[in-house]
Write a structure and sequence with these properties.
It is a single chain. This protein has 222 residues and is mainly alpha-helical. It has 2 domains: 28 residues, no CATH class; 169 residues, no CATH class. The protein contains 6 helices and 2 strands, in the order ββαααααα. A two-stranded antiparallel sheet has the order 1-2. The radius of gyration is 33 Å and the shape is elongated.
């Protein structure tokens, strides 16, 4: 008995002749056999659905990327780890693009910029205090007060509290050192504390500026 594979006459389509397309397919024996339009329709439908799904995933991915960037910039504005969120978003793009976008050197550059933002923010309060006449001890006290204030402010009122209490901590640290340890006059100690608080604010905006610089560099390297 001949199997359907060996008998071209059995390789027929279960649909009416009007539903058949051209006889472009051939059997193993070289005999033309019909191909159903329904098969073509199914293939086209699957291809279209895959295209729509891939387009949807691309749109969702870019929306998530934009949201991550906005969150990162907002965190920078209040003195948190925003540049690291931006770095994570850029690394994700690098991975999902099959390592075609950016490159190892670009990722290394973004990482260094994120580290630079943390350093700038950390030393800004002390630098501001120094510019307003503080000594080395007052600078260290301002840094310690800034760190402690940021931790307490985050626990009490996240984001806004981080910035406000961090500035207050830098102010109190510098003033306490100048007034208690160095026995400076009250107005001199307050003046130094003001410099520390302003330095803290300047550090936050410098960190935010570095975040924008990361995005600008990423746009050029994309």
């Amino acid at each position: 008995m001949n199997s359907p594979r060996n008998n071209p006459n059995l390789l027929t389509c279960p649909f009416e002749p009007a539903q058949l397309s051209s006889f472009s397919d051939s059997s193993p024996g070289g005999v033309a056999r019909p191909r159903c339009k329904v098969q073509d329709y199914v293939v086209a439908t699957v291809a279209e659905n895959l295209y729509v799904m891939s387009l949807f995933l691309v749109i969702v991915g870019w929306i998530c990327f934009v949201l991550a960037i906005l969150v990162g910039l907002a965190l920078d504005l209040v003195g948190l780890f925003g540049n690291w969120v931006i770095l994570a978003a850029l690394v994700t793009v690098w991975i999902l693009s099959g390592f075609e976008r950016f490159g190892p050197w670009s990722i290394a550059l973004f990482t260094r910029m994120a580290c630079l933002g943390e350093v700038v923010e950390g030393v800004a309060a002390g630098f501001g205090a120094k510019k307003f006449g503080a000594e080395k001890g007052a600078i260290l006290a301002a840094l310690a007060g800034c760190l402690a204030g940021s931790v307490v402010g985050t626990a009490l009122f996240p984001i806004l509290g981080t910035l406000a209490v961090g500035c207050l901590g830098a102010f109190i640290g510098a003033v306490a050192y100048q007034y208690i340890v160095r026995e400076k006059q009250a107005h001199d100690a307050l003046w130094t504390g003001l410099g520390a608080a302003l330095g803290r604010i300047a550090g936050v905006f410098a960190k935010l500026l570095i975040g924008f610089a990361m995005l600008f560099a990423a746009a050029l390297m994309y």
